[in-house]
Amino acid sequence: MTAVRLEEVTRDFGGVRAVDAVTLGVEPGEIVGLVGANGSGKTTVVNLVTGSVAPSSGRVLVGDVDLTGAHSVRYARAGVVRTFQSLRLFEAMSVLDNVLIGAQRQRRPTLAEAWARPPRFRRRERSLRAAATGALDQLGLAALAGRPVAELSQGQRRRVELARALAAQPSCLVLDEPAAGVDPAQMDRLIAAVTGARDAGCGVLLVEHDVALVVGLADRVIGMAGGAIVSEGTFAAVSAHPDLAPHLSRPGSP
Amino acid sequence: MLVGAALLPLWVGGRYGFGLGTTAVIAVVTALGYQVTYGFSGQLSVAHGPLVGVGAYTVAQLTTTHHWSFWAALPVAAALAAAVGAVVGLPGLRVRGDVLALVTLGAGEILQSLYLNTQGLTGGYQGVAGIPPLSVRGTYLGAPGLYAAALLIGLIVLAAVAGLGSSPLGRAWRAGRDDDLAARAFGIRTGLLRLLAFAVGAGMAGVAGGLYAVQNGFVSSVSFGLNQTVVVILVVLIAGQGRVGATVAAAVAASVAFDRLTRYGSISEGATGAAILVVVALRLGLIGAAWSRVGATARSTGRALTRGRRAPDGGTP
Fold first, then answer.
1. Is the pLDDT assigned to residue B306 strictly greater than 80?
2. A119: distance to nearest CA of chain B, Å?
3. Which residues of B66-99 are buried (b: 16+ CB within 10 A; e: fewer)?
4. Can you tell me the ipTM of this complex?
């Protein structure tokens, strides 16, 4: 069973082919690095595996269920959870409430439970809080739990994005540039959190410009150019590809 | 603060004071409903006043023509207003912001025109008169009794709104309000939840309308127009988006202010206009912003007192 799988997926925007006959799978318990220049189709792949964009042709499978063309809500409910490169936090909410939205992914909130508050409501609410607090602790954000996210620095906000996704306990975690703007002192926490999710059986798709992070984290690397997969394997093998080498030639630089 | 609001009639004094108290409770219930629609789920509805009318006409008709008791009519009024609200809120599935405001403005005008033109149901321009005052087991309650009943209903609505605010549903509403796409990426059906928020807010407007009908004994369309909507929006903006406690304070304050100003004739409209200008200039909401300021100051003072270091996680702010 794959965490998420694209089969021969093509996506056109107007006359532009953003993704061209791409087949890729992320298995449970592995981190797949996705690299390539700007405009190579990485972000469209992220949007395809999370259901934000529907394929023009081909199939998208989440845990062996065909979700091609389904609403992104169904992808989320099926276990595909993402972070956003552009940082899409709930701006007027506290850090804790943002992460609670992740934690309550599998809940269908109802009026009845909000008003009747049966004992199991309190138990569930406590377990949501425990999951959220756990994710915040993992990323060193516990002290910020009550703060409005609007007050945070870029790096802190990036970590809240990851905490929100981890609290959702995904079966497939899609990370779009999770390290951009993160304080180097906090990078170890971020790496530990992502590898922790992998070791718990989560499949991770990692889109990242930070070459060191891809080398350090990814079990397998996929290289894209011009909307197609041009190379697949170890980072060393992928970065040697002529279409990719110019963009991936700075290992070790932040 | 709640106790202060509840004791308002004693401060103002007498029969008149209880009347003002009931009016204030009606304003609080109306504004709390709008906090669900606008505050929690972020829908700038401009149909709230006409939705109050649905509840008022329902209680008026059921208690006069059909001789129902107020207590039986009120839940029906709430349910009917919620149902009409769900229809008015349908565009919220697709549009938000200024477009939704315009669409709901149109829907509110349609309701207004129905109030004026469905003679059999609403009495047209004459309205519905002769609504019996509130009674319990055949004895009519005076102004203090009505106030006590309104206060009880108001507290139930307050508990209901506060309960929503602190529930997973409240969080899901806020998430959809702040970032629809991100909320959907976490499994929240934002469109359906917005419709639910519209219906719940309208249901509370219906409760307020029912109270209004029994308090005044007479309802007509002039009480449920755009002017009333604007006042509700103003109260909620003064309180701050989604702030429940501040909404109670703002609605009570607005009721008292209107009561004083109406003695000087049409100055109240001018005052409303001026207040809108001030509130829009301050955007955040007066009371909400002040509370945030106090909270932030308290937090930073607390941090300075408890430890010498700054930036609790070692990061640069």
1. no
2. 14
3. eebebeebbebbbebbbebbbebbebbeeebeee
4. 0.93
